[in-house]
Amino acid sequence: ATIVGSMLEWYDFYLYATMASIVFSKIFFNAADPTTASLQAFATFAIGFVARPIGGLFFGYFGDRYGRKRMLFVTFCMMGLCTTAIGLLPSYATAGVWSPLCLVIIRIVQGLGAGAELAGAAVTSYEHAADNKKGRQGAWPALGLNLGLLLSSLTVYLLTVNGEQFMLAGGWRIPFLLSFLLVIVGLWVRRSLPETPEYQQFEEHHQHKRPF
């Protein structure tokens, strides 16, 4: 269950980086200045990283207070729905400056969710593991990196073989919209995930961890 969330996170990571280098400078920014447009496209990619540690701290605090499972549900939906929303955004030619502005806002929210998902998945795996397997099980979410890379690379490859015009005409939206299916699958997998034993013990004694 934690691997699914990690896979979605890295699917978004590699997908956005690839699309930023292929078409985003022509879709969301003023293509009249290709160099500036490319820099702006990669700047929106970097914004997500700035938001990640903030998301980890923020949702980590609420995960300590209200449970790992609830926060994993929230952050997983944040990531998946934001990725889907990118696929629905109008282009710069249609909406002007509102297009990159909305993209930046979505990337910030997405970054908050991604930072929390990574930390929350690792903690959840660790706390569910037996005492002699905590190190190994806590590392399972890292497998999502390879799965996300494989899935995003395969998806982009299958689309780019149709040519640049296909991508610019709307083909680039397909992998972002497909993330909605990943959200549905992920929520179905995580619905049976129990709360971690450690948090249940704190809940029974009405105690809450503090982040600092």
Automatic annotation (TrEMBL):
Topology in membrane: Multi-pass membrane protein
Localisation per UniProt entry: Cell membrane
Molecular-function GO terms, alphabetical: transmembrane transporter activity
Keyword terms, alphabetized: Cell membrane, Membrane, Transmembrane, Transmembrane helix, Transport
InterPro entries cross-referenced by the UniProt entry: MFS_dom, MFS_sugar_transport-like, MFS_trans_sf
GO cellular component, one term: plasma membrane
Residues that span the membrane, as ranges: 13-32, 38-59, 71-92, 104-126, 138-160, 172-189
Domain Major facilitator superfamily (MFS) profile per the UniProt entry, residue ranges: 1-212
Major localization class: membrane
Record SUPFAM superfamilies: MFS general substrate transporter
Protein known as: MFS transporter
Naturally occurring in which organism (per UniProt): Herbaspirillum huttiense
